[in-house]
Amino acid sequence: MHAERAVTRSEYLWLENGPAAIHAHMARPVVMTLDRLGAHRVLDLGCGNGWLTAALARCGFETSGLDLSHSGIQIARASHPEVAFHQGDALQPPPAAWQGRFDAVVAVETVDHVAHPDRLLAHAMQMLRPGGLLLLSVPYHGYLKNLVIALLGRNDLRLQALAPHGRLKFFSRQTLTALAEQAGFELLELQRIGRVPPLARSMLLVARR
Description:
The relative contact order is 0.15. By secondary structure, this protein is an alpha/beta fold. It contains eight helices and seven strands, in the order ααβαβαββαβαααββ. Strand 1 (41-45), helix 3 and strand 2 form a beta-alpha-beta unit.
């Protein structure tokens, strides 16, 4: 019992190998964007249980996954032995072998869960080849959507105040763009994903090193 509690506090605890809720509307735009912009070797940063990493591999990309969660990486390796998964902290400098290795770094609903997103993007920059792509998704926050959420009394659900490893950052279009540009990336596009645009579920930023 004490061991289970310790693991739950120290990491995001994965229990299943299927898609997370975010993948229902995010997987297809990620695949289409990577294909349209010609990426091949892709790092899934914050890969969790590896579902998206494996889905990208099935679409023909050469993929690797990185996550801090021990339980997530265990499930990923057991469920998708054909894909390379690595347990590690994206806020720490990447290994020398990963410097300039990837055509694209994908981070789906990851940057809003870390205290220092600038470090995560700095390390993503190091792992990308010159001209490589950053695909970064976060929940969409807009005035109308936030007003609707408040009127429906769903702020607590949105803010995840009691959730272990809940959201720490809440980005607007302007602040997400500023985060990428301050890290040295060139913004290519910023898509709103899921539902009608004013009530979109997520934003997908695409930028180039």
